[in-house]
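Technical appendix A lists one of the benchmark inputs used to test multi-chain prediction within the project. The record comprises two sequence entries:
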Amino acid sequence: MDQEYNVNNGDNVNDIENEGLLDGKQNERYSSQFSDESMAYNEPFLVKRRNTTSQIAIIGANVCPIESLDYEVVENELFKQDWRSRKKVQIFQYVVLKWAFSLLIGLGTGLVGFFSNIAVENIAGFKLLLITDLMTKKKYFKAFAALAGCNVGLAAAAAALCALVAPAAAGSGIPEVKAYLNGVDAYPVLAPSTLFVKIFGSILGVSAGFVVGKEGPMVHTGACIASLLGQGGSRKYHLTWTWLRYFKNDRDRRDMITCGAAAGVAAAFRAPVGGVLFALEEAASWWRSALLWRTFFTTAVVAIVLRAFIQYCASGTCGLFGEGGLIMYDVSTVKVKYSLADLLAAILLGAIGGILGSIYNYLVDKVLRVYSIINEKGAIFKILLVIAVSLLTSCCSYGLPWLAKCIPCPTVVQDNCPAVGGSGNYKPFQCKPGYYNDLASLFLNTNDDAIRNLFSTGTTKEFHMPTLFLFFASIYCLGIITYGIAIPSGLFIPVILAGACYGRVVGRLFGSISRLDTGLFALLGAASFLGGTMRMTVSLCVILLELTNDLLLLPLVMLVLLVSKTVADTFNIGVYDQIMKLKGLPYMEAHAEPYMRNLVASDVVSGPLVTFSGIERVGNILHALRSTGHNGFPVIDEPPISEAPELCGIVLRSHLLVLLKGKYFSRDRVRTGQDIFQKFSASDFSKAGSGKGIKMEDLDIQEEEMGMYIDLHPITNASPYTVVETMSLAKAAILFRQLGLRHMCVVPKSQGRAPIVGILTRHDFMQEHIFELYPHIDPHKRTLDQPEEDI
Amino acid sequence: MDQEYNVNNGDNVNDIENEGLLDGKQNERYSSQFSDESMAYNEPFLVKRRNTTSQIAIIGANVCPIESLDYEVVENELFKQDWRSRKKVQIFQYVVLKWAFSLLIGLGTGLVGFFSNIAVENIAGFKLLLITDLMTKKKYFKAFAALAGCNVGLAAAAAALCALVAPAAAGSGIPEVKAYLNGVDAYPVLAPSTLFVKIFGSILGVSAGFVVGKEGPMVHTGACIASLLGQGGSRKYHLTWTWLRYFKNDRDRRDMITCGAAAGVAAAFRAPVGGVLFALEEAASWWRSALLWRTFFTTAVVAIVLRAFIQYCASGTCGLFGEGGLIMYDVSTVKVKYSLADLLAAILLGAIGGILGSIYNYLVDKVLRVYSIINEKGAIFKILLVIAVSLLTSCCSYGLPWLAKCIPCPTVVQDNCPAVGGSGNYKPFQCKPGYYNDLASLFLNTNDDAIRNLFSTGTTKEFHMPTLFLFFASIYCLGIITYGIAIPSGLFIPVILAGACYGRVVGRLFGSISRLDTGLFALLGAASFLGGTMRMTVSLCVILLELTNDLLLLPLVMLVLLVSKTVADTFNIGVYDQIMKLKGLPYMEAHAEPYMRNLVASDVVSGPLVTFSGIERVGNILHALRSTGHNGFPVIDEPPISEAPELCGIVLRSHLLVLLKGKYFSRDRVRTGQDIFQKFSASDFSKAGSGKGIKMEDLDIQEEEMGMYIDLHPITNASPYTVVETMSLAKAAILFRQLGLRHMCVVPKSQGRAPIVGILTRHDFMQEHIFELYPHIDPHKRTLDQPEEDI
């Protein structure tokens, strides 16, 4: 049989670091936001139609062994032993610790969320106070210099952190978390340094007045906190603890990171249910009822923590942090009554949001590709790009308000008019007392306050139409050019800002026939644009409801989201999926592609198949580990151990390394059986934290030991999932994805052949790999025109 | 190899009808609420430690072929042909129809939900008006006679409908829907007659003053509506349409029924997001993102329909249906401020709810077992039982208020005091003007109004403690004895009533140290009891929030639910799971049991293995179909077709019947190949509606045809999922469950043997079957003490 296999990944010590752009045409590269330290970094990864095995071999590099989805890390004697030895107390401990960790994740994320809000409010508030002060003294140039100076300083600090300490902290982080939860183990994405930079970079970036949010970064932060806890701290920073061993498998870690992502959303929007739904709808690839419950617990903790802090700060002890530091646009005081006209308006808004959203995604993609060329040139270019964008943003936010006319303050008004402090709805800007500049109220505020102003009810006339158009256009463009620079940057806030703007415009247009408040139209506009870019439905809906605390708007929000998602989906995919694809993260969809129905499992098996005997020579194992990048090797029992050659199971590279490190050798070709328990305990084989496993360099095998034997049976997973070579590839893909496998054995259909045909890994199901093998498949037409079809 | 297999199910024409009690000790039987018409009905099913093949064979009877979870109904030439022939237009049609059907389900469920609310409000309102009228005239005996008479009349009507027309309509229906979505195809559960009885039985039952809700039945109603649409109407009632063919597979039907269940919750509680979450958390076994979106759409439609009707009825055109006909307890006007004391109160409430909930479940189980003996005796006994419970309920609701003292009306009150109409918070009962009877306010109201009274805020002193205790005790007991009688009966309302009662009690106790309103304590109490019985978390939380329209309570509700679920889970399982188990529905859990780790796939294979050749004699097929109840048969290619015997795939009974009916025979043992397309189209093989497939009796095979041959290759599923015989049973179970299989082939590990060892079906994974084979496994200790452990 010539079918061979390919199990990815050379040294999986640096789990990621090979990130590149997936683009068949120009082979341009997208400067990964991950560590540049790795050699492999410059290898484009998943490049189409380049038929070199090394390319293919790299692909699986980021794939984590998630065969443990079904909890049984390895179904063999050793681990049975482990289970048997687990006393009831230990299982109890395990369960209690799981919950304790959920609590810690909730507490941690809540704390960080609150801290970053306070920091942003204070830094940005101080900056705005300074400028307002200068403006009232008519020192216009000084005011601009102060604004631009502050912004550039903050931006440069954020960019420096990001470019020099943790490039993985740039961007939103949601695509990376999503990919991790799908089984793509990209180490720096969840590293402690990334966490640090994400928190402080996000505070600096948002304070610098960029059109970015802290919501996406909060999700990433939550996931990082969960990962740090799940790994039992960071060995690098000497923060470790012994509970570590309880969570040494992928499933538990993934569960914790799911909780972390949910906690992030909950902390960002004060939306605990929305957080759970976000984790469910957007982040997680596998889901269980038990996880729902734990996630829910985590977000509840976040909600309680935030509430406690807000009550503490209500007395004014948190500096410039007012009650509204955390975004919360309470519109529940407005009586919602809507008619048929409002339904039409909702559908119109949905359509606009869908179209604008898909254009937004398209442009973000293009800009990211351009930026990748710049960012690739080095850290200094990254920082310069950030500074350039910062200057542009400062120019917009200071320059454009000059175009707006001064408006006399409304006679009845709850807020101060003109505003006296840093925030407020009525910024005086250049106007004389008793007047305000509506565009300045939007531009020279924190983004959160700008959203609050746009969502504010009973303020129909207070933003003029040209102001809304101008603000929308600049936010839309700034949002596009800001995402992709080397700072932590969330997409939620720019999208909500732009959406709320056109929502208000539509509200004004429908003003005569609608009874809805313009502020509610702004909310619907934001929903439509969110739906158009992110393509979530239920979670966005719940997040918006929790933000605005008005359940009566629910049917309208649902309608808007449904329309905008439907419209946008006809053009392109969601922004997070798009970024994930751009970064070349090998995400496995839950469904099989239609062309897979016409291939069988053995059609996509590739690469050289390396197998071991049940009792193998040390030299052979070392050679195989050195010469291939495979992470899993089939073990075949041959006579005299069995009657005929038969597939014994599969061994993992990491487990082989443990045996080699521990020198579990014997002079003769015999089964050592239970002896292994004298040398190893089950926890020696449990999964190490990212980047912490035994490396090839750690081995010290003497020449005379090369001829000795290792009995692989105790560490062989004797129950690997297998498919017959003639199994439809579509069904094999579903099996692989649903069970969260890393390796799937392909066995021959007929007898009398070698007991294994090959191994399928995540990479083999990737569209790029299949199209490379079968270039005549047309993915767009998705027709079934290849000759092998009727096999 | 002696290992044999067992593929369940005799004639799957009556898909269910064999329902019995799963109880090893006494073999008592729980009278199923399903059709008594079936012969098989009296067979206890899943009886432990009775080693007769017929018993085993019955078990799979209710299992529907859900191998189509991965969309590929059968992975063979015929269906590839089908896919190829599907023009783009058809796929477009398919997608549009899916959405159209979701719309229809939403509209239908919304309409039915609203209709039943109006009906209940009018019938019960009329009854209560009559009694109030008689009471004010001091005709106390007449009033009781009127109450009891109305109640018994309504109850008897409901029971008659239920016992004679559709026994499957009794009870809540949620366990059956849950089982269906897990793959248990129980025909009468979703039949049109069940829908009819569910709607009208529920209206009559609730109007009869039983302590039951219409919420569970609404879920069932939604599922029935979806099923009716999915099957393309009912052939029996001459309501069919041709779109039928688009949804002739299990996956599409299951999707629609998921939407229906969500729509039911949405209609019952006006909680669209809660409905989606309910479907996700409690109902569905498989879930996709696309389904989330469609479910969301359906519930949005329901919400809009309900809103439109309520606006229509607001002008008073719906008789006694007031604004509050649909439960909606708006507490958003209350300012929520809570302190540490309230957190403690919430934890206390959670603990109480957990303990009371688990006792409730325990008692419901016991009462159901007793009732099953009564119900089994015949329809007349069912009706008598209903009448007895109805009389008892009437006695309680009329008799107990006499024990309460008259309370002077509060001086400042929004409601009328004493109440003048049918509903209201201050029932005069026997009291003189200016006074009211607080217990009568709870008993002599519809359940919805009673809940509204308990949830009402600013009414701390208006229900006295003895009243609350008495009402709680009676509702708790009545709730337990009412569930299980032959009327459609939801569990939500009794649980909410009882929970709200003790919530108020706790609220009074904490009154001095808490700033929370007693009405909010009632809400938390209801949450705790719901959590303690039903064990849902996120969906209950969202449903309660949508009901009460107050998001600020969220953290407290979450805390209460978490505590109550945790406490209750230490004692027993949720009430729906318990009922499902009692009914013997073979539900497959998402996780494998620990003892399964110590068994391998071939350990549980049982029953005679019947296989076919690739080209098989008609006589053999007929004989196998007649003599076994199997639904799937392995097809083995033998020389000369293949070099050595090899597993070709699996054929389904239903597909064989199509070939036999169509007389697709040939005189010689040859492959007929593509000829099959001249006789059949793909739609001939698509799954018929429940109970509508070809039956054995429909066949008319002549004697001379018995010797002819059928080429089975075109209808053989050539890519069945297989496991090696040494695969851990735990992993096999997860594969089976995750992919939603019906048949899983077990293949030999070593070569040179028959190509198939046996077939695993849902039944083989059931605990009862495994414990029958291995009685020494102790499910409670879950130790791993069997000798075969270290295979």
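Chain A touches chain B through 78 residues (CB under 8 Å). Residues 190 and 224 of chain A are 5 Å apart (CA to CA). Comparable benchmark entries are summarised in Table A2.
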